[in-house]
Amino acid sequence: xxxxxxxxxxxxxxxxxxxxxxxxxxxxxxxxxxxxxxxxxxxxxxxxxxxxxxxxxxxxxxxxxxxxxxxxxxxxxxxxxxxxxxxxxxxxxxxxxxxxxxxxxxxxxxxxxxxxxxxxxxxxxxxxxxxxxxxxxxxxxxxxxxxxxxxxxxxxxxxxxxxxxxxxxxxxxxxxxxxxxxxxxxxxxxxxxxxxxx
Amino acid sequence: xxxxxxxxxxxxxxxxxxxxxxxxxxxxxxxxxxxxxxxxxxxxxxxxxxxxxxxxxxxxxxxxxxxxxxxxxxxxxxxxxxxxxxxxxxxxxxxxxxxxxxxxxxxxxxxxxxxxxxxxxxxxxxxxxxxxxxxxxxxxxxxxxxxxxxxxxxxxxxxxxxxxxxxxxxxxxxxxxxxxxxxxxxxxxxxxxxxxxxxxxxxxxxxxxxxxxxxxxxxxxxxxxxxxxxxxxxxxxxxxxxxxxxxxxxxxxxxxxxxxxxxxxxxxxxxxxxxxxxxxxxxxxxxxxxxxxxxxxxxxxxxxxxxxxxxxxxxxxxxxxxxxxxxxxxxxxxxxxxxxxxxxxxxxxxxxxxxxxxxxxxxxxxxxxxxxxxxxxxxxxxxxxxxxxxxxxxxxxxxxxxxxxxxxxxxxxxxxxxxxxxxxxxxxxxxxxxxxxxxxxxxxxxxxxxxxxxxxxxxxxxxxxxxxxxxxxxxxxxxxxxxxxxxxxxxxxxxxxxxxxxxxxxxxxxxxxxxxxxxxxxxxxxxxxxxxxxxxxxxxxxxxxxxxxxxxxxxxx
Lengths: 198, 557
What we know:
B: about 550 residues
């Protein structure tokens, strides 16, 4: 043993620390949750306070199909990670691509709804308080879905190039954790916008 | 052998072209260099915001003064507040956290060195954007330049109609961008402390500085983010025609207040907890005793962090909340006094019976103890709603929070400078200049901020551009301004000390204070790789164990 450690005792037999990627992602999720909380509070606070129409009851339609898409993508991304851990490359690639497809479908659903609201009902972000809070809350979530999709796509590209192996599964799990968070936030946004808000 | 190696390395460093050195500093991901960058950056803005404070004080030196125009006055207090909080206090504390946390837990670097660099440059960009508003803020309207909406930017002042041009946009984006930097640093610190500790460094053996910075980092995640969210809303209002804070469309100005103070109050604790951390390292070393009540100190800190999240609306008593809300926020604010009192008693308990050495770091820490206590007491006065109705928006409040930030946080920071400067540079700061700095600053501080309570009690509102003679405020304001100049001289002594000691200071050696935490076990300044071999610790004071193998702490813990 070198000079610096001699007076110190032997290293403890078992010294394991948590994986830094997971801890950091947990930290990011806590921070992001606080951001979403503020937007959700603003949405709840302004329900029914718009001075002009249209109101949520008039124009909103519950996006059940696209919600199922997004929520089931949490399952696919989870099992993709498990397939990678077992080094089952084919299953990983197909489940990972399916996750991206489901996430993309969800974004398409949001886009279609916004198109309908803007062109059929004339609701924009500056129309009234409902428009302001609705587009910013749903838009903030859609932004997070987009960011998640970009990261999922990057991993897919590396995977297709054969660079993602079983030794990377912990890193892939960190991204999956973010994706689960995006899905969990949707449960809250869905409840607030489409159930309480109407 | 080792001194030869040092000499060769030094020669090589001096012979390199300055562009290469600059490039190395700009692209660095080393936690020690980033720590120093944070600190130097913050010191620069400390001088800038100090000049702004001086302009404010010169304007108020006597009644009906017109040293600057009212518009410039508004810009000065806005820029002074914003700069001091976001671009002095936060970065300087991040600098120390960056430098010290990995060294104290026996790690090679932060958990995410590149994220660390990214966070620093985001903060730097934020400060640049804020000051670029002087040049680019007028926009097409020619209205204003630097932001003049005060540091809390209440609605509707910050709305497009009342703040045309781009000055408020620069403020918003500067704060938003530096906030993202802070979130990055928060995540990085948490991951570093939880995942990078050297063998044996259990959570219960971490130095208190590490514990307190971990708490601070946890707070950053839930404190800075509401402000980011509110800034995004403000940007939506200003750029996309949203109505979040637009009362004419049913929006609420009070909602902005809530969002701002959900950030704004815990922010004080984000700043003061690292100052507690300096206290908890410096006081034991100069009392030659281990810290008194280590577990209680940790518990009290976490308790303060929790309580601080539920006190924000004591900044809003005069807005007209109902009596239940007023009572709730008054009671939670009083409760913060309990864990804070525990901490003050623990520092006293550490000093009690110790062989106290009155070196400059310790002097600043003792100053902190007294002044932070008084700041806490005026805080408790303001936490009672009826008292607050009388004195809110007066100079009493200004005196109170400057007592916290200057008398508390800045004093602890100066202590930290004198304590860790030898580690960062390898040279001791001059004790003589240090004593001059301490006494001048102490006198200047008390002349300014003790006196400032009285115009507040006499009804002088904050943020007024000037005042009429004969209200009993004239002499008091003159004294306050004179004190500000004494503080300015003290700061010049400090800066001179930093510069002269870097070149001429006494060589520090590894461990000039005979201290006990791991950073003192390596050379000063530490090598790039920090530790040649990964240290293994068995107690809270690993260096004590090393120096006293016959009586190690590990036997008792």
